[in-house]
Structure formats: structure tokens, C-alpha cells
Predict the structure.
Amino acid sequence: MVTLLSIYMKSNTARKIVKLDYIYPCAITFIVLAVYLATMPTSLSWGYKNFGIDSPELLTSAQLFGIPHPPGYPLYMLLLGTFLRILPFADPALVGNLFSVLTFLPIIPILYSTILKLFASHTKTGGTSLRLCSAISVMIFCFLPVIWGVSTVTEVYALNILLVIILFWASVSLVLHHSRSDRISRKLLIVLSVSIGLGLSNHLTFLGFAVPILFWIGRKTGLRIYLNPIFFFPILLGVCLYAYLPIRTATAFPTNWGDSDTLGGFLWMVRAAPYGGYFSFPWNEPTFDHVLWPMRLIFSELGPVIIFLTLIGLRSVYTFDRNLVIVSVISAILFLGYGAAYRTADSEVNVTPVLMLSCVFAGGGMLQLFHIAQGWGNRSEAVVAGFRRISRRILPNIVISAFLLLLPFFLLMTNFTNLDFSNDRQALIRGREIHNMGNQNSVFLLSTELDVFTTWYVRYVEQPSSIKLPIAVPLLQFDWYRKNIPLELGEGESDKSGKSIENIAKKIAEASISQGRDIYIADAYLYKAISGSVKEDRIHLIEW
């Protein structure tokens, strides 16, 4: 009888623990969903710090199932394009922003589970403390400005973060399963390899996390795991999604990038060749800013308290798995170094895996605080007579729990105003203002991403029946772009790559004027050059 009662009590306790493991992530998901929906742009937006500067272009390409800027993001195009067609009557920009939010939500339970798994067998604190620390770490991650900003606007980064965290969860689960049973879980190996294949077909910076973590798995389970067909076949299948590029190149949309139907053009797209000019090696152009930029970014995102907890967590994990700490630091250096060298307007978003790892280790730091507090409570006497009924072990836990819960709450309160873009319509207004200029068949020579992408969106998504023609002037240097322009430039003119951009723009102006079209130019220098040689009152300067 006693045995049966003890079995029942143990099973009942186990069920309660399982329920708790669902309650925490479900509660966080509900809170994050409410906050993200409240601050998500309801229309076309560039978002926080213009992190969504590519949003209009991505929406245009997804609506057409076309090809955006390199490396083409085939997985994202297929998913976003399908999602847009599921809600065909809604505003495409709103649907795209909602897609990012919904893509982010699975991150919450997966990251929570990862932190639980990582520290469960290596902590002396109770299960309640472990769950609380895991939950707080996840909330901190969700309310970091960069994470919040890229997850509420149409961008590839929410999907990238999801795939990175799935890979991390699968890696931790695989290593723990091997340590307990000395066997490799085929299911976990498939999840691991699928996440790598899909991650590479979404964003190539995924390699900066995948390669170090695979080294860690190899050290823990043996390198023979990578000879298993179950490992590399799903990766190959995921990478095969890049076949989307040559297939959709044939559509020749005016918004398509590259000529991926040739080997050279395909490689040009995949390796993001046109953005090589943004990359500056520190030894080629050494500046103190290359060193300070990663430090400033980490400090501005995490703050001193979370950084302190991260360092404590790193030290804690080092005591039972130094290889994990080493590969995590290597991955962080790769991403921070890449961000420092690849200085663009949205270079900060490339370090999201570093922020994820920081929050994971910060959870370990929180556990150490609970461990220290419990040790202090066991040795100390009651401090205040009024609290004699409260256990000496409970009082420190209450104080630390209250302090740690303030961290995500502080991030939420301080960042809410800056990240509230629910009423932002600047991007849409700009695109519409340009598109509405001139007569019904106007041609626009646009030079910046802000002008080009927003006008593409208005022309090809909002008003697909329009015959106006927005042209990206910087892309006129490429043969493939000139071929896609639905404008007759003269016999053989579109195939001559030796022409300067200015001369090609003049040719476009002449061809347009001969067809009775108005020309609107957003660049003052280009306007002066064209209006000086083409004497027509149909040429206008766009002034802001």
C-alpha cells in the first residue's frame, strides 16, 4: 500500500512539473504576442533604426515570387509568398509584419526548453528556480531592442533566429541524449541537419553559428556522426532550395536581381557579390571604431547587469562543459567581427545569435545567484523578527526573484516607446508620393533603397495595373537589370555593359521622352547631367 501511494505521489508530482513546463512558456508567449502586436507596424514600415529598409523589396518579391537582393533568400520567399496568398484580401505589408511575429513565437518555448535542458543536470537549486531563470532569460531576449525590432517588421531575421535556436536546441538535446545512453538519436540528428539546411537557404551568416556548434557536437559524440547519411542528406535537400533562383529568373520581373540561370550569375547571387564593397577588413583600414563597435553594441543591448549575469553563467558552464563555452565565444567573435567589418545601416541585426547565447548564459548566472542565496540562507539566522515565520531559505529567493523579474520589465518599459511603430506610415507615404508624380506612364530614376524599394512596392503590389516605371539607377550597371526593364533602349543598347550609369540613364530619358513619358529623377547630380544634354520640359527633379 505504501509503495503504491509513493508511486502515485511521484507520478502526480511529475505531472505537476510537466504542467509547469508548459505554463511558463505559454504565459511568456501570450505576453510577447500582446506586446509585439501592439507595437507592430500596421502598414509598410522601415521599422526600428531602419532595420526593415528591405521590407518593401521583400514584400514585392514575395508577392511576385521573384528574387530579392543577394543571396536571394529562397526559403523566406517561398514561406512569405505562400503566407501572403493565404490572406489575399489583407494589406500585404500588414501580413508580412504579422508573418515575422508569428515566426518568432515558436522561439519562446524552444529557447525555454534549451535553457532547462542545459542546466537541469548541473544545478543544485530547485526546479522552481531553474524554470524561473529560464523564463526570465527568454523574456529578456524577447525585449532586447534588436530582437524586438526585427521581429515586428517584414524581414528575414525572425526566421533566421528561429532556425538558429532550433539548431541549438537540437544540439543540446543530442549531446545530452548521447551522454545518458551512449547512442545517437536519429530523430534529433534529423532535426539538427534539417535546421542547418533550411538555415543556409535563408541566411548564409547561419554558418557562423552552425560550424562552431557542430565542432562541439563532434567533441561530445565523436566525428563519425557526420558520416551518417541521415546527417548530410537533409542539409543537401535544404540547400537545394536555391534552385528557386534560376527557376524564377526566367520570369524577368523588373524587380528581380541577378541572372541566376547561368553558373556565374548563380554564384554571384549566392555569395552576395555586390555587397563586397561594404566589407572592410580591420587590417586594411584599422580604426579604433572596429574595436569599440562590438562593445558598444553589446552594452547598449544588454546593459551592465545582464552582461554581469552572462559572465557568471559562462564561468558556471565552463566548470562542466568548457568546450561549449569555447565554441560559444568563437561564434560570438565571428558574428561581432563580421558586424564590425560589414558596416551597413542594419549591421547590428547580424549579431542576433550572440544576443541569444548571452541570454542563455545569463540564465546560468541567475541560477548561480539562487545557489549563493540558498547557501547564505542555510548558514544565517533570521534577520528580522517579523519574518520569523518565513524560512531562511525562502526570503533570499523572494528578493532575488523580484530583482530578476525587474530586468525584462525594465527592458519592456524603456524600449516600448522607441519600438512602437503601430502608427508609422513613412515608408508607404514616401512610395506613394513618388508613384503619384506625373502622368500615368511616368518613369522614375531613383538612387536610394528608401526610394526604390518603396516605389517598387506601390507600383507592383499596391497598384499592379499601373504602367509607371520605377528604375533603380545603381542597378543600371548590370546587364541583367537592363534586360528586365520594359523599355526599348535602342538596338543592342541593353546588352552593352561598358556604358556608364550616367550614359545609360540619359538613354532611358531619351527613350522615355520619345514615348511621351515624364521623367522624374531623385538625384540632383544625375538630374543636372541629364537635363543639360536632353533639353526637354518633361524632366523633373524629385525634391524632399
Observations:
- DSSP finds 22 helices and four strands in the chain.
